[in-house]
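Q: Sequence in, structure out?
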Amino acid sequence: MAVAADVPTEAEAAAHLAAKQGDVRWQTPSADAWRGAPLGQPFSVGDQVQTMEDATASVRMKGPGADVELAPQTVLRIPPQDDMRRVRHVSGRLRARLDPAEGESRLEVSLPPGDLVLTASPGDDIVDSQIDVDEERTEVAMLRGRGVLRRRDLEPVLIADGEYAQLEEDGALLDRGVDLPAPELEATPPVVRTRGMMRLAWKTVEGAAGYRVTFLPEGDESSVLHETDVPEGTFRVAAGDYRYELRALDALGRAGHPATSSPFRVEVDRVPPPLDLASPRSGVVMEGPVLHVAGTTEPTATLTLDGQSVPVAADGAFDVQRSLPTGVSNLVLRARDDVGNVSVVTRQIVRAR
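A: Exactly. Output:
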């Protein structure tokens, strides 16, 4: 049976399709169209492999122990090979894995910011990395082992076991840390009214030993950093416009992926609500059991008289009656606003009979 000229023989192939699920396609440098890739399909230098929506694939490189796994909607290319196996990661997510049990393993993944070099020798543990490439950035996470990202015209970036690095296309380092997921934040209202403290809470991150909260003011002001052992906290904050960033920390204090809140404004209010008691006057002597209590306060305030709730009208007015025992009574009226500021007015009343 004749073999098409652009289909490599097994001896010529640099890699082959070791596993697949769904629609996996390949393309040779001389072909305009993509074609379906059957299991075992050999690939030569210049070929491209693509997984379509909901498809996955595993490409085994020629030589010992180097596998590349493609997530859905991922494209890679087979560049020229030498003693080190090579792939070019064009877009999407892939896993590059070395198994040193099969012998000395070396793999180079060409990325927009540079080349990720993975090596493993017999006796080493498996080396496993996850790499995401999109239009804005490249992220390399070392799930096991370590790798070196050789950037063009910049110092190499060593990515240790359990760490990640995010880079721009030109190699500029955007972010790095330990590969802990970004915490899931509770929603923050657009305006936060407070006396100067702000409570935040988030969902627990598995494997986290603590959390780092960084308030990011708008403008030229410095950020403010806090750390806590639990997935919540109350933090001092000044008035202004902010976002905040939250990262989980591992046992060594290394920070994971960031979660950033939407913008919000902090309004600091330490002024107690107004409380004007028109009736009764202090020291008044009552001839009967019923006392008339009236006055004004902030319309949104919570008002109590001797611990009992008093209704407040939309204009802030209140007007209630209370029965008092014979003798001297001390009345305590409290108004509390929405952030906890309190005004207190007291009156001493005498009931003669």
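Residues 15-178 form a domain with the Jelly Rolls fold (CATH 2.60.120.1440).
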